[in-house]
Design a protein that fits this description.
By secondary structure, this protein is an alpha+beta fold. Helices cover 33% and strands 27% of the residues. The chain is built from nine helices and 19 strands. Strands 6, 7, 8, 11, 14, 15 and 16 form a seven-stranded mixed β-sheet that branches. It has a four-stranded antiparallel β-sheet with strand order 3-4-5-19. α4 packs across α5 and α4 (187-194) crosses α7 (265-273).
């Protein structure tokens, strides 16, 4: 699977819905009031978290239902972020500064299986976002979509690392080794550098283009690829879920195209994406993306999408999440 395939899929979504901000010498985002349904889901999730498992802080092992699990040492993780604003300059922090991570894909790189498994995380996932002021000082936490965490970094590096830590917390504090972010204007030069991408649609996407019927074979150049993974109707509830499906299809197709052409993924990305790219990934892990196969299926976080006060809110189902975390990142301890 090519590293470029991973990065290109991490492209930004549409504009955010947030309006509730307090403005002043310091910009502070206040959490929106959730709907009653959202509150119930959040409360249930919090209760489940406290009783699901126990963690050994010394060796990182987890005991779940009487069984002890150890971290899979063959695993490395790479978080790819798609940023909705290519202007990464910041005068401060907050919704209007530096954009949001509207697409998040965690790639699980397994050296024992020579396999890379994508785990797609909804940008609407509700978490306790860490809120900082314009001087980078921590202020408080607020229940927000996880996409908002990126906006509180003072530069692309800090914003990426803040989001990386928040995703790690979401996944039961699973360690994330690397992070790469690509702004939306980076997708066209990257795709054009590889060549057109051909894929067969697994879903009906005629809302995006009348010719995008289920089963149709389509070819995407840079601009078309950007639209394919970026556009959604923000007026329609749940539209981000449909977009994530397109992104998964595109990612797999791009991976196959890159591998068939024998292109050096990391070099292509670095040369073509330029200022639109931020990366913190070691050479050995990057090399895996040029050699390893992609899993046949994409993983998604389990949970429920509900209608919030201003926007969609996705609440993770902790009872289903934890077994998924064990499957992806742990192995039963050897007696």
């Amino acid at each position: 699977m090519g590293l470029i395939a991973a990065a290109v899929i991490c492209v930004a979504g549409g504009a955010g819905f947030y309006a509730a901000y307090s403005q002043g010498p310091k910009v502070v985002r206040q959490a929106d009031a959730a709907s009653s349904e959202s509150t119930e889901v959040a409360s249930a999730a919090g209760a489940a978290t406290s009783s699901l498992y126990s963690v050994d802080n010394f060796d990182g092992s987890i005991t779940y239902k009487g069984v002890r699990y150890e971290p899979n040492t063959h695993i490395k993780t790479v978080l790819f972020l798609g940023i909705d604003n290519s202007d990464q300059s910041r005068k401060g922090v907050g919704i209007d500064e530096g954009g949001r991570s509207d697409t998040m894909v965690l790639f699980i790189v397994d050296s024992s299986k020579k396999l890379i498994t994508p785990l797609i995380i909804s940008r609407d996932t509700m978490v306790n976002v860490d809120i900082y002021d314009n001087d980078g000082e921590f202020l408080s936490q607020g229940l927000e979509q996880i996409t908002m965490q990126y906006s509180y970094g003072q530069n692309a590096q800090e914003a990426s690392n803040l989001t990386k830590q928040k995703v790690a917390d979401l996944l039961c504090r699973t360690r994330i080794n690397s992070v790469v972010s690509l702004t939306m204007d980076g997708i066209e030069p990257v795709v054009n550098a590889i060549g057109n991408i051909t894929l067969q649609l697994q879903t009906d996407e005629t809302a995006l283009d009348p010719s995008y019927t289920k089963g149709a074979v389509i070819t995407l150049d840079g601009p078309a690829a950007k639209d394919f993974v970026h556009i959604r109707d923000t007026e329609i509830r749940g539209s981000n879920n449909e977009r994530m499906s397109r992104q998964a299809q595109f990612m797999l197709a791009l991976s196959q195209t890159a591998r068939s052409k024998g292109i050096s993924m990391i070099n292509t990305m670095e040369k073509s994406a330029g200022k639109y790219l931020y990366e913190d990934i070691d050479a050995d892990t990057a090399d895996c993306f040029a050699k390893y196969d992609a899993a046949k299926e994409v993983e998604y976080l389990p949970g429920k999408n509900v209608k919030g006060t201003l926007h969609d809110e996705f609440y993770v189902d902790e009872d289903e999440l934890f077994p998924q975390v064990l499957k992806l990142f742990y192995l039963p301890a050897q007696s």
